[in-house]
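Quick start: read one record
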Amino acid sequence: MPIRVARSLWSRWRRLSSPAREEMTPLADEVRERALELRGSADPERDGRDLGAASERLADAMVDAAEADPEVSPADVGRLRSELSRELDRVARGEVAAYRGAAKRAKAQHDHEKMV
């Protein structure tokens, strides 16, 4: 779910070194705000897309910071890029629902279609 990905990204951001974290604070704040908006959203599809876009921007910034850090090996950068990409791809492909209510509706719809 986009909120789970946002939470994971925000957690990773909190573990960054102070200078890197400070540079990304506006992006992390945007992710947090969009996740909060999604929880009570009247339009979860739109707000889920907005959260996904904000999460992508934060993930890109994290990879850029890792690439610029001489203490981070190219292999570690590659692993980070791969992990973040996998999570963002799952959200983009719709493998995870925007929120729990959407997942329940999708399952109910699927079950109904199997019966018809």
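The two ends are 29 Å apart (CA to CA).
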